[in-house]
């Protein structure tokens, strides 16, 4: 085991707390995907003059598909044309029409830019081809970002440094190299992305283990996905079963993915560590397994939510009572 400096240790501890705090406060919506669109969960449109409200999500989706000037629709049944700004909003799924052309060796993120730990670590250019060539030629370049329609100027740069996160940017395409996962830290569904962080297990604690997968990142990702007891995996091939003992930050070349405490259920917002102790539930069926609880609620149009105690609500639950280990799922509009 590598020794970490006390600075890294302190940062690691702070990050652990930060992650825990975010998880408690955070509600995460699992937005079902739509072909040809990139989904931005828990976001809504900011101030825009081009918003139309249709009768349903299905109506908005079909109107947007058949209108080339439509940029986006959401599960509230809204469509927008022209420039789109987004702000945070629990339970709203924004579908942005794909704008990026595919490039081999890269994954394209629509309406996305790259934020860097050190903003200056870039090679800028005045058009797409030059920054793409620069990134291809430099094995330390994790990716590049370009303005798609640059009629009025634009932003073109190849990254040379540490990526802090990806961020929404209307009209911008970000391309991340597929073979540099430890440096690009691509987003993963159902996980919190800890950029440039490695993880260690809880030594000697019962029911916990920390292991290296021989197949590296891909095998670690797969083995974490299929094991409900897995709490995290890293691109260095490590898998954590049970608690994560320590996160070490500033480990350039390793990304760690912390599994969401509540497994994502498509069409629902998950509230981790919260329950609703006031709204009356309609019934409880303790014999159901979790997957069947989800299916039962999904297929019943009157079901507005459920929790891990197998309670079902016909009026929207409002999970505001702290209960460690609980997951409460609230149906998002339109699904
Ligand atoms: C971006 O949009 C394209 C369609 O233009 C789509 O194929 C691709 O999957 C989208 N990217 C993401 C990350 O969703």
Helix-strand blueprint:
Elements: H1 6-25, E1 27-29, E2 37-45, E3 51-53, H2 57-65, E4 70-74, E5 78-81, E6 86-97, E7 106-116, E8 122-124, H3 128-137, E9 143-147, E10 156-159, E11 163-177, H4 181-184, E12 191-194, E13 198-201, E14 209-212, H5 216-226, E15 230-234, E16 238-241, E17 244-248, E18 256-259, E19 268-275, E20 283-284, H6 290-299, E21 305-307, E22 311-313, E23 321-331
This protein binds 2-acetamido-2-deoxy-beta-D-glucopyranose.
2-acetamido-2-deoxy-beta-D-glucopyranose (NAG) is lined by residues 36, 38, 98, 100, 108-110.
- Unreliable stretches (pLDDT < 50, length at least 5) are 1-24
Discrete helix count: 6
Order of helices and strands: HEEEHEEEEEHEEEHEEEHEEEEEEHEEE
For the largest beta-sheet, the strand count, sense and barrel status come to: 6 strands, antiparallel
* N- and C-termini, Cα separation: 47 Å
Calculate the mean pLDDT score and round it: 89
Describe the structure.
The radius of gyration is 21 Å and the shape is flat. It folds into four domains: 6-28 and 190-259, 3-Layer(bba) Sandwich (Hepatocyte Growth Factor); 33-97, Hepatocyte Growth Factor (3-Layer(bba) Sandwich), CATH 3.50.4; 106-183, 3-Layer(bba) Sandwich (Hepatocyte Growth Factor), CATH 3.50.4.10; 268-331, Hepatocyte Growth Factor. The longest helix is centred in the N-terminal third of the chain and has 20 residues, at 6-25. The protein has six helices and 23 strands. It has helices spanning 6-25, 57-65, 128-137, 181-184, 216-226, 290-299, and strands at 27-29, 37-45, 51-53, 70-74, 78-81, 86-97, 106-116, 122-124, 143-147, 156-159, 163-177, 191-194, 198-201, 209-212, 230-234, 238-241, 244-248, 256-259, 268-275, 283-284, 305-307, 311-313, 321-331. With 335 residues, the protein is an alpha+beta fold. Residues 36, 38, 98, 100, 108-110 line the site of 2-acetamido-2-deoxy-beta-D-glucopyranose (NAG).
